[in-house]
């Protein structure tokens, strides 16, 4: 296997459910930036366990996701997966698993990424449809700035990115 | 009378909920409910028809490839180009889809189903030479028990040694899954939501290096299927023979067929690896498929659209307050009857229609288990059929990859029509998947998808007939209402596919406020 970039940016969510897709939107914008070869961008969409293959053996994984935390739409949270534990679950189908399960799996295999940071944006509208609600749309710039910082990227990288970002809208 | 509810509390909304009423420990009435409205056509209406292939893949992160196939078939049909798909395009579709398909079957068995029968704690305290078992033992000793716990406590019957071997295979399956993922990416670009399958064929060029990369990975997966996956399913079957009687279900099976072998424009006449049709369990009588007999009932579903409509003219007007309803799933019916879909349906149809490969495989497995074909209508029958189908598809892929022609085109060139309609029917990992599209003025006027789990986990229909999974649950004996592992085993044998709608974090009971970043 060829060696992979040590840092991975992951966007998670379902773009068919408006704000639920905020993470994917951030990943799409990230992918349009001139990133150094040390950073790879992964649009994980609604993936479950298959994400494990992408997470394995990275030095750093930064995730953008949606969250329901009863805050105002567009509020941004930052945490590590351990801080979210434990959550109760009983999976009836492969569709009941998610990125956290994929992370567990890499821990089991001894291939877990060294560090994982999650940025999660409080959703406003998760009805069926494409596109973000205004409050979440307005949070994109901040999420990008936080994610770039977490990935050790210079802030200047986003200046070019804003153009790329608006091109995607 | 008492009520048992299996309602997975996960971070994912829109899940499957199972409610049963028991009387003296026997299930009298079962209700399967899909808890999420998924109005796909709301999004697709008015868009470029080619967007359907991209957008429908986003329905699901576990089986996006099947949606890519079904939507591309529907678009080939609507564009009038189904007879012009280049051989490379047809083969690449089969190979990309096959990669996702076999990994889905392997993952379902090891990650979900096997854990109902194999006691993972058999690996606790292991100090022997097997590094896979040491990994699991280390993992357990660090006190990190997810993904294995919490679980419903089953009656674990496998001897410790067999359990330990199965746990080692669980770890191996995770590694195999990575190889299947890489294999898919060779021609599909990425997983999930691949970019390779497209109306007109496929978008990746065939080269000799890619063929070689694909072949060695496929060979390793085939070895795993033959020497690990199928033997493990048989080991479970031998220890749990009662599950050849449990969860038998409605006794009618249906599939659309899958993996195109030629370019016949009429899907029902197209030559495919696995054939379409319906089968009656009682008489083993086979009928070819007539897609015009498919309709969807909504009496017990949260919709106020008209009932009993064919999917091509389907309507989806949500009505969450509807008093008689208990599910967001509609109830698809064929000829007004309940049908089960999935690998078991496909293996039975292939068996009865004289597919030699399938017949030999099924007979050899039945011989080893000392069972006859009627034993397959059961929980274990579904797992066995899934494993055999995995082999049938992987073996066929080994032939297809050799038929690829480097340098030849993969995709037809075509003009978009102003109007048209199309139907895309395919086998998907979890059963028959259909997409229907109507194009007017160059854009999508209507789009309907009937997914496999709508068949299997449907609510009651207009005539009050329970769905396939509901029927499989009814009559089941539950030893302990607080730990209904029998019911979980039945539901999992269908490999249901539902909870894809919303994937956000829902940190119940956590003080998330202290993690505010901005």
- Percent of residues in helices of chain B: 25-40%
> Spatial order of the strands in the main sheet of chain A?
2-1-3-5-4
End-to-end distance of chain B, in Å? Answer: 52 Å
Main sheet of chain A? Answer: 5 strands, mixed
Describe how the helices and strands are arranged.
The complex is a heterodimer of chains A (169) and B (518).
Chain A: E1 7-12, H1 22-31, E2 39-45, H2 51-55, E3 60-67, E4 76-79, H3 81-84, H4 99-109, E5 115-122, H5 134-150, H6 157-168
Parallel strand pairs in A: 1-2, 1-3, 3-5
Antiparallel strand pairs in A: 4-5
Helix pairs in contact in A: 1-5
Chain B: E1 2-6, E2 16-23, E3 26-34, H1 40-44, H2 51-57, H3 64-79, H4 87-113, H5 131-141, H6 160-188, E4 197-198, E5 201-202, H7 208-239, E6 252-255, E7 258-260, E8 272-274, E9 277-280, E10 285-287, E11 294-297, E12 331-334, H8 343-352, H9 356-369, H10 379-403, E13 420-428, E14 431-440, E15 443-450, H11 452-456, H12 468-473, H13 485-493
Antiparallel strand pairs in B: 1-2, 2-3, 4-5, 6-9, 7-8, 9-10, 11-12, 13-14, 14-15
Helix pairs in contact in B: 2-3, 4-6, 4-10, 6-7, 7-10, 8-9, 8-10, 9-10
Structure characterization notes:
The complex is a heterodimer of chains A (169) and B (518). By secondary structure, chain A is of the alpha/beta class. Helix content of chain A is 35%, strand content 20%. Chain A has 6 helices and 5 strands, in the order βαβαββααβαα. Chain A has helices spanning 22-31, 51-55, 81-84, 99-109, 134-150, 157-168, and strands spanning 7-12, 39-45, 60-67, 76-79, 115-122. A 5-stranded mixed β-sheet of chain A has the order 2-1-3-5-4. In chain A, helix 1 (22-31) packs across helix 5 (134-150). The radius of gyration of chain A is 15 Å and the shape is globular. Residues 163-169 of chain A have low confidence and may be disordered. By secondary structure, chain B is α+β, with helices and mostly antiparallel strands. In chain B, the strands form 6 sheets. Chain B has a 3-stranded antiparallel β-sheet. In chain B, strands 6-9-10 form a 3-stranded antiparallel β-sheet, covered by helices on one side. Chain B has a 3-stranded antiparallel β-sheet with strand order 13-14-15. The N and C termini of chain B lie far apart (52 Å). The model of chain B is unreliable at 9-14, 499-504 and 506-510 (pLDDT under 50). The interface between A and B is large, with 63 and 73 residues.
């Amino acid at each position: 296997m060829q060696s992979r970039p040590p840092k991975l940016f992951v966007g998670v969510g379902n773009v068919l459910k408006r704000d639920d897709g905020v993470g994917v939107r951030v990943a799409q914008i990230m992918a349009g930036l001139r990133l150094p070869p040390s950073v790879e961008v992964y649009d994980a969409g609604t993936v479950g366990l298959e994400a494990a293959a992408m997470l394995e053996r990275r030095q750093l994984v930064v995730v953008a996701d949606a969250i329901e935390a009863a805050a105002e739409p567009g509020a941004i949270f930052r945490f590590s997966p351990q801080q979210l534990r434990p959550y109760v679950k009983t999976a009836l189908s492969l569709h009941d698993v998610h990125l956290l399960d994929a992370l567990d799996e890499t821990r089991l295999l001894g291939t877990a990424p060294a560090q994982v940071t999650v940025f999660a944006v409080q959703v406003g509208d998760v009805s069926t449809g494409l596109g973000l609600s205004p409050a979440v749309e307005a949070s994109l710039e901040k999420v990008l700035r936080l994610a770039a910082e977490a990935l050790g990227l210079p802030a200047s990288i986003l200046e070019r990115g804003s153009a790329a970002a608006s091109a995607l809208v | 009378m008492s009520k048992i509810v299996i309602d997975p509390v996960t971070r994912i909304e829109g899940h499957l909920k199972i409610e049963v009423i028991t009387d003296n420990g026997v299930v009298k009435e079962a209700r399967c409910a899909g808890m999420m409205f998924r109005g796909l056509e709301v999004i697709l209406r008015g868009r470029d028809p080619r967007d359907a292939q991209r957008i429908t893949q986003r329905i699901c992160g576990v089986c996006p490839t099947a949606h890519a196939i079904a939507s591309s078939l529907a678009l080939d049909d609507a564009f009038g180009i189904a007879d012009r798909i280049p051989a490379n395009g047809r083969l690449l579709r089969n190979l990309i889809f096959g990669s996702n398909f076999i990994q889905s079957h392997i993952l379902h068995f090891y990650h979900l189903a096997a854990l109902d029968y194999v006691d993972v704690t058999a690996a606790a305290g292991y100090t022997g030479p097997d590094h896979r078992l040491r990994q699991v033992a280390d993992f357990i000793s660090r006190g990190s028990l997810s993904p294995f716990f919490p679980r419903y406590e089953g009656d674990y019957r496998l001897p410790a040694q067999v359990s330990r071997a199965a746990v080692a295979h669980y770890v191996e399956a995770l590694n195999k899954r990575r190889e299947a993922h890489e294999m898919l990416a060779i021609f599909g670009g990425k997983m999930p939501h691949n970019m390779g399958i497209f109306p007109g064929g496929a978008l990746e060029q065939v080269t000799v290096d890619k063929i070689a990369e694909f072949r060695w990975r496929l060979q390793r997966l085939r070895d795993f299927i033959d020497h690990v996956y199928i033997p493990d399913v048989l080991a479970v079957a031998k220890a749990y023979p009662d599950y050849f009687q449990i969860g038998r279900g409605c006794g009618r099976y249906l599939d659309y067929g899958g993996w195109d072998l030629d370019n016949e424009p009429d899907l029902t006449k197209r030559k495919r690896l696995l054939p379409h049709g319906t089968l009656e369990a009682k008489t083993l009588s086979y009928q070819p498929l007539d897609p015009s007999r498919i309709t969807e009932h909504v009496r017990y579903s949260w919709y106020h659209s008209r009932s009993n409509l064919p999917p091509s003219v389907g309507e989806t007007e949500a009505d969450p307050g509807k008093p008689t309803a208990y599910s967001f799933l509609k109830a698809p019916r064929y000829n007004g009857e309940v049908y089960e879909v999935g690998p078991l349906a496909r293996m039975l149809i292939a068996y009865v229609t004289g597919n030699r490969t399938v017949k030999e495989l099924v007979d050899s497995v039945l011989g080893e288990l000392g069972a006859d074909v009627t034993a397959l209508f059961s929980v274990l029958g579904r797992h066995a059929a899934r494993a055999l189908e995995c082999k049938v598809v992987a073996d066929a892929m080994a032939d297809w990859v050799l038929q690829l022609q480097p340098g030849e085109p993969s995709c037809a060139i075509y003009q978009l029509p102003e109007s048209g309609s199309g139907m895309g029917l395919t086998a998907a990992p979890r059963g028959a998947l259909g997409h229907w599209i109507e194009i007017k003025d160059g854009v999508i006027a209507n789009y309907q998808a009937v997914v496999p789990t709508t068949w299997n986990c449907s609510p009651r229909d207009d005539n009050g007939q329970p769905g396939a999974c509901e029927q499989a649950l009814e009559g089941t004996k539950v030893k302990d209402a607080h730990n209904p592992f029998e019911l979980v085993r039945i539901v999992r044998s269908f490999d249901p596919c539902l909870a894809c709608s919303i994937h956000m974090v829902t940190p119940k009971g956590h003080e998330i406020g202290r993690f505010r970043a901005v």
